[in-house]
Design a protein that fits this description.
- Its cofactor is [4Fe-4S] cluster.
- Keywords: Iron, Iron-sulfur, Metal-binding, S-adenosyl-L-methionine.
- With 312 residues, the protein is α/β, with parallel strands linked by helices.
- The protein has a single domain, classed as TIM Barrel (Alpha-Beta Barrel), CATH 3.20.20.
- The protein contains ten helices and ten strands.
- Strands 1, 2, 3, 4, 5, 6, 7, 8, 9 and 10 form a ten-stranded mixed β-sheet that branches.
- The two termini are 20 Å apart.
């Protein structure tokens, strides 16, 4: 990381010396929360919950990000690689269905080491890479054989919103190539029983592509759904999300997305997917546009009991 090229931005920052790249973090691992999470897709959370580790920093920092506090690295505390491995086993001991690595991109090399070591030490549950989709496939190859499930965003097909909302006009270029590598590593979905739930099935291996519908961006969303389904068929699951929640400053600076999406817009997207023939998809119903999906980034589960959290 002395000249960081982990993500498509390739900003060249000397993170090894403690400097911060676009992602907002040095090479030191920072995490803001490590706990069971019940608001992922049903095949990820199940009844037992997903063992979620929220890492600080992000290579996108979208203006509408629900996890903006941790994405901007305003929340989180430093941990060692040994501590990260311990966290994996602590979450497994809580009967988590998987280890869910959220915004892991700035730390892919460290995560690859920690995941390999945890598997070597006997960790049994799957690893989930929960990322923004703006990934370099060459970096993703570090994770080959270590990540069992890719839970990735595909935010934009169009250049204009990608640049305006995420400062990444080349987003679709990289998202397509990253998805291809993810599917190469995990070509077919595999499901199995959930511990303690004889009727439940959870994903053990596979790829899920999430898309959060933004106000006024139905055509962009349709192009994404069309691309993913026409390229990968039902081997890739889609997750069409309606939970977009505008913040006060978003409404002020970006008035065109300063509102919730309409029921009609979301239904149009769902019907479009059905019309294409999509069978493997998750949709959201009811009042999902609220902040109940946003956990508290208070350091839960990050430090060992009895230690003092360190503010970043």
């Amino acid at each position: 990381m002395s000249r960081c090229t982990i993500c498509p931005r390739r900003c060249g920052t000397d993170r090894q010396s403690g400097r911060k790249g676009f992602c907002g973090v040095p090479s030191q691992l920072y995490a803001a929360r490590a706990a069971l999470h019940f608001w992922e897709e049903p095949c990820i959370s199940g009844r037992n919950g997903s063992g979620t580790v929220f890492f600080s920093g992000c290579n996108l920092r979208c203006v509408y990000c629900q996890n903006r506090e941790v994405a901007a690295a305003h929340a989180g505390m430093p941990i060692t690689l040994d501590r990260l491995i311990e966290i994996f086993f602590e979450l497994e001991a809580q009967n988590a269905n998987n280890i869910n690595l959220v915004t892991p991109t700035p730390y892919f090399p460290q995560i690859a080491f920690a995941a390999a070591e945890a598997k070597k030490q006997g960790l049994k549950i799957p690893f989930v890479c929960n990322c923004g989709g703006y990934e370099d496939p060459e970096t993703l190859r570090l994770l080959d054989g270590l990540i069992d499930i890719y839970l990735t965003d595909f935010k934009y097909m169009d250049q204009a919103p990608a640049m305006r909302y995420s400062s990444a006009g080349d987003y679709s270029f990289w998202a397509k190539r990253a998805l291809k590598e993810m599917v190469r590593q995990c070509p077919e979905p595999v499901f199995g029983p959930e511990a303690g739930n004889t009727s439940g099935k959870i994903m053990k291996k596979g790829v899920i592509v999430r898309h959060l519908l933004l106000p006024g961006q139905v055509k962009n969303a349709e192009r994404i759904v069309s691309y993913v389904y026409n390229t990968y068929g039902d081997s890739v699951f889609l997750s069409l999300m309606s939970q977009y929640t505008p913040f006060a400053d978003t409404e002020e600076k970006y008035p065109e997305i300063g509102r919730k999406i309409t029921k009609r817009s979301y239904e149009r997207l769902v019907n479009f997917a059905l019309g294409l023939g999509v069978k493997n998809a998750y949709i959201q119903e009811g009042g999902t546009a609220k902040e109940s999906f946003i956990p508290r980034f208070d350091g839960q589960g990050v430090q060992k009991c009895g230690t003092i959290p360190v503010e970043n």
